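User: quick one
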Amino acid sequence: MMAPSLPVAGNRDSLLISLFFLVLSLSLFGQIHLWVLLLCICAAVVRICLYSGLYNHMPGRRMVNLLALLAGVALVTTSNNVDFLRVMVNLLLMASSLKLMLLSKRRDFFQLFICGIFLLACGFIFYQSLGRTLFYAAMFIVLLFILFSAHNPSAGFAFRRNKSAILMLQALPIALMLFVFMPRIPPLWKMPEGKSTETGLTDKITPGDIANLAQSEDLAFSATFTTALPAQQSRYWRAMTLEYFDGKSWSASETRLYAQVQLQQMRREFYPAVSGEALRYEVVTEPTQKNWLYALDTAVPDSAASGQALWQGWNYQLSALQPVYSRFAYQVASYPQTQRVSSNLALDKAINTQVPERGNPQTREWVNSLRQQHPQDNDFAVALMDYFADEGFEYTLTPPAMLVDPVDRFMFDAKVGFCAHYASAMSYAFRLAGIPARVVSGYQGGTPINDNTINVYQYDAHAWVEALIDGYWRTFDPTTVVAPSRILEGFEHAARFSNEMQGEHPLNGINQWQVFEYFRTLNARMDYLWNRWVLGFDNNDQTDVFKRLLGDISTLKMSILSFGLFALTALLLTLYFVPSWRRKTISKHQKRYLTTIESIEKQFNIRRDNRSPRQFYEHYKAIFPPRLSQALLALTQEYEAIEYGGHSQGVEKINQRCRLVYQALRDTYPR
Amino acid sequence: MKAAFESLSLKWLASRMPPEPSHRLSHGNIFIFPGVFGVFYLVMTLCLFLLAINYQNNLLLFLSQFLISLVLIALFSAYKNVAGMLLTAYEVKPVFAGENSYLEIRIEESDKPLHGQIEIKWYGDKNRHMLDLEMEKKLHHLPFPTATRGFHRLPRVTVTCSWPLGLIKCWTHLDFGHKLLVYPAQKAEQILLAEWHSENGKGRKNQSGTDDFYALYPWQAGESLSRVAWKRVAKGDDWLNKVFTEQQATSGYLDIDSVSNLDTETALSVLCWQIVQLSAAGSEYGLKLGNVIIPPSVGPAHRSTCLKALALYQRGDTL
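Assistant: Done. Structure below.
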């Protein structure tokens, strides 16, 4: 029980909870408005002043209400284009800091606790890395400690620390059991989507976007192969096809999306005819809030569970049925040798020959003349690639801005750019020549972290071209001819050795140290394990655990298991709360007696072993000097009187006798 | 409706926890349920759980499951903390109407130390009193405001504890079975002592004079309690006997009929004040309240008898 109203000055728990909110708001720095952060800092300062007694007056309720009104208006005006979750976090933090200024009641304290837990939970939604998780877990422990402290106002720090730790440790096994064994429930309703600020690909490419992306070191996904790793230059991870071009940017085609919705409703999934050798692997993606998934070349789901959760689009694109809100693992098999037949020739042609009616006149003219020279589609494609190879194009991540007729500017003036520029220009050229073509956005390469796992980072983002030639979709990557190192050795390598990138990319320089490289790999592996087994622990993994425990799953066995879990919980609780097995606490006079005997033992180098006090005295009295012998006899008698005689107030007397023994000891061997 | 429910629950409590001067808390008399904060906490946990499944976020899922497990642990810890606690209440001293009477409640632990704070209040009352169980001396004086004279049955005492986290509330409604005697309020007004006419004609005995205090001697078991120097005892000294050279005092009867110009309650208040005064002065006095006649005497015991008679005058309850 806490007192219904808390003192203002010198209240430890109020101070602790305000410091907690200060640290929490600082940790959410990227997610909240700056003014909300300032408000939190203000609240903490107010609390510190009140605690130390520098200032004795709580801010008036009327003043804080006015502040709340202003803050509410500010929140509404600054929250355009901010997604729902972040608005909620801002609102909660704002309300908490205002409450902190007024904190004077038990009720306020409890409200703050609940807000604190909610904010921590939002932290888990925003950030899921190992480090962040540890940080928020520590914050959670601190918050529980504060709550416990508030209920033990006069207990010492050691007691509060130990007891709250015990409470949490007792709850931990039960929580772990729930986590592993409680059935997973699919999402009940669709949550408001967050903007994917953290993850790289967008469903619209305007050359210029990907330059920013290349700077991001965040993990996009990991792939663990059960077959051999494919070579670096053939690792093209498709994510989405961009089939609509407006002269500047490429985006997903409305027609395609509409067709996809219709087909999904009719449950008409596309089953590509695959051939050749398979690459089998499992992908664990980071949350993107989007449906798209990553797979090499032509891929099909490789497990029953993946088959249910994945949708094969008619553009050879795998996607998830639910947006990927958290780590998501799926098994796929890729068949790189498959010739991709157009799934619906009429539709593919209609969508992929669309070009804007006007713009980029130079390119139109140039393509017309080139097409006349190469009426064959294949020859035309070769000629296009040759053009990029021979005309002095360069690869750069910092191209000049190309605002009007960007393709013309790129093809004939600047001649510098990155993958998106090349893919965009090439697809456009194909389309002008009447050959269906589209931009594919995804990742290229990836860094192996061990013999069978590849980590793909945001800076591996790439864009390339697929053209429909002779009824088959063929892949062209114009970037290869311009910057072969980008494809052969990966983005990281290319960036490190390209002069223009020196000092700009976060990986530069540091990587050359062997030690750093070692830790980076170690870190990547730990992240992988964390992602795979904690964040990505799902239905399938749970079923695996059941299978490993039970052999095979039957209703009977499952009911035995659930009963067993109940029994286990009950057993745990019995262990915690039935005290019989606990060590008996010894009383004060026993303690005092034992320490005194210990000093005698040390000085005379003897052992009491399991003799009773009386036996001890009788056994050794001969070797003690008379004074000590007397004092010890008195102590023994007194001890017996308390222990067996039922005297209750003997501690004082025992103390007195012990002092006499100590005096005798000192006099025996004066130091 | 509410009153009916209240009387029903009191009846149920009476059958379940009959009055007893001391109670040891156990599963028989502890109620345990999430408090208001606990309910909000559970709602929050449910919200987190929904968030976790909708975002398919394992960290959030684990957090919500941990919060639930914590409730389970808190439930048992809360019970274990209060179970075995021994609450004893001592007889309450009579007070004058309008004063606060204090029920002294002593709390003892069984074999393990008690933690946290408890909230003590009268059943159905809003005034809460906090007691820290970490303190060496676990003693609480629970004030009971009085208004009318007579015997009052003290209501049940509600003791609540929500250690360790405030999520789970353990409470009990204890009846210590004590009755409180409330004397009439004092009203200062001089009245004359009616003369004492002895029925067998011994004559007057209203010697006036003051008591001459002589000395203090150690009190010995068996001697009257009435002469103990209580003030010294209260200060912590040994028990001493007050010895007077002469037991002389104004003597006579206080008669309710002599103040019949006042209404009964005021009259009683005046008599009450008078008794207190006379008693403090060490005078000898008697009391006549209609049929009730208390012969003159001195000392605290006599004073109590007289005041009790005043308190119960024309009240049916002669407990």
